[in-house]
Amino acid sequence: MNWLELFHPGTLIPWMLGMVFGIFVGATPGLTATMAVALIVPMSYYLPANAGLAMIIGVSFTAIFAGDIPATYLRIPGTPASAAATLDGHQMSRQGKGAIALTLDLWCSCIGGIIGVCLLIFLAPQLARFALKFSSFEYFWLAIFGLSMSAIVSAGNTLNGLLAACLGLLLSTVGLDVISGAQRFTYGKIDLMDGVQFIPVMIGLFGLSEVLRNIWKPTITVDTTTTGIRSSGKGFSFAELFRTLWQRKRLISQSSVAGTVIGALPGAGADIAAWASYGLAQKTSKEPEKFGQGSEEGVMAPTSANNAAVAGAWIPALVFGIPGDAVTAIVLGALMVYDIKPGPMIFEQSGDQVKAIFGIALITQLLLLPAGWIGIKAFDRLLKLPRHWVLTAVVIFSVVGAYALQSSMFDVYVMGLFGLIGFGLELLAIPLAPLILGLILGPMVEKNMRTGFIKTEGDWLPFLTRPFCAVMACMLIIMLISPLVIQLFRKQKS
């Protein structure tokens, strides 16, 4: 295949338009990367295969990055994969380092994506074969690990983080039973039969609660470094940027590899990859105490991982026809339209088209730099408006984002309710991110746990005796008790 064909105007123009659309959707709370791809796929059907695939791939990568922009400036994740950016990225923004945070975010997204695509090209068959060996027992522990990681690495008390995660798990039980289909906690409300939708909850917890916090303490806005709604401040020079990236090369590499591996596990997704890499970075950092306080490492790790996870999700999708996440589930349908049949024979039957997909994915990472820079600058201009204008805009976008999900006022009410709940939880120093992840991963935890018990007729030993399960359980126990051990060691030393 001649890669120069990818730069034909008939391919390049739809490609760039798709990336701009991805930046807009990803940076708009409530409009997820999955929604962006779902909206763009019907349009791609009328284009040649390369142009259509370029649009789809461009949207998926740029939307994941763009979700970090409002997460950094306003503490509103544009996508679930951006929830980790609300920790150190937002703290840096409050310190007047928003430009630095997003510059690192953009470049690490690009580098992580390149590493992820390279691993996709060279290691796809092996990693996909490993993921296929997973049963409900392994998926249960994978979900528990991702959920616990978000609680452990959250700012504040670990117990409060676990409490928030359990609250999210409880909310995930609302709706139809995942096994029997019986109604649970719906109280006769038809709107609750599909469960509590995480997008209105996410917008309320991270968006509306921030507005309420600013209204509750208006004096806080006298010091512009603590509002979380301000200009991005002074950015990096190129020399400083590349020096920082080089100094953190190990962190970027480990986060990208971890993100790719987790992304290749069907059902895991970029959100688990981001949290797992954040926790790994904190555990391996020389300055773990700075995490949650505006650490550059806390910005670089999750954004390297979530873009790499997007590439990793293509591994089982291409090689075995198993979607790694919701985005690749939609993409599989698009591949069928172009007569590309995912499976072990795809490299022989559609070799040229697979090479085109690899080329598009690699070039998209480079095109992400100018597209992301434009998105950051456009968003930064909005932040120079008066504070009450920005707060009003946040409320409007929160309402529109919640309503856009299902064109339902019920979701708007849910968003408002969780705005109040989020405001109250923050007053109690309970982190919000574990609650969201608990809501998202709850069905995965419950389904695989109950499926495992059905297989074993109630025996819980296979959840601990299978090799991967035992490793995950040990890792989780070590991470839970290590802070206590370190604290005791320091007391004895002092």
Helix and strand arrangement:
Elements lengths: L8 H18 L6 H12 L4 H18 L1 H7 L13 H7 L3 H35 L3 H18 L4 H15 L2 E2 L6 E2 L13 H19 L21 H10 L1 H15 L5 H16 L11 H17 L1 H7 L5 H12 L8 H4 L1 H32 L4 H18 L4 H19 L5 H24 L5 H4 L1 H27 L1
Helix pairs in contact: 1-2, 1-3, 1-17, 2-3, 2-15, 3-13, 3-17, 4-5, 4-6, 5-6, 6-11, 6-13, 6-14, 6-17, 7-8, 7-12, 7-20, 7-22, 8-20, 9-18, 9-19, 11-12, 11-13, 12-13, 18-19
> Which ranges are low-confidence, i.e. pLDDT below 50, for 5 or more consecutive residues?
219-231
- Rg calc: 22 Å
The overall strand count is 2
Distance between the termini: 65 Å
Question: What's the average pLDDT?
Answer: 79
Main β-sheet description = 2 strands, antiparallel
The amount of beta strand, in percent, is under 5%
In terms of structural class, how would the helical and strand content be classed? mainly alpha
Instruction: Give the overall form.
Output: globular
Strands of the largest sheet, in order across it? Answer: 1-2
How much helicity do the residues have? Answer: over 70%
What is the structure about, briefly put?
This protein is mainly α. It has helices spanning 9-26, 33-44, 49-66, 68-74, 88-94, 98-132, 136-153, 158-172, 198-216, 238-247, 249-263, 269-284, 296-312, 314-320, 326-337, 346-349, 351-382, 387-404, 409-427, 433-456, 462-465, 467-493; strands at 175-176, 183-184. The protein contains 22 helices and two strands.
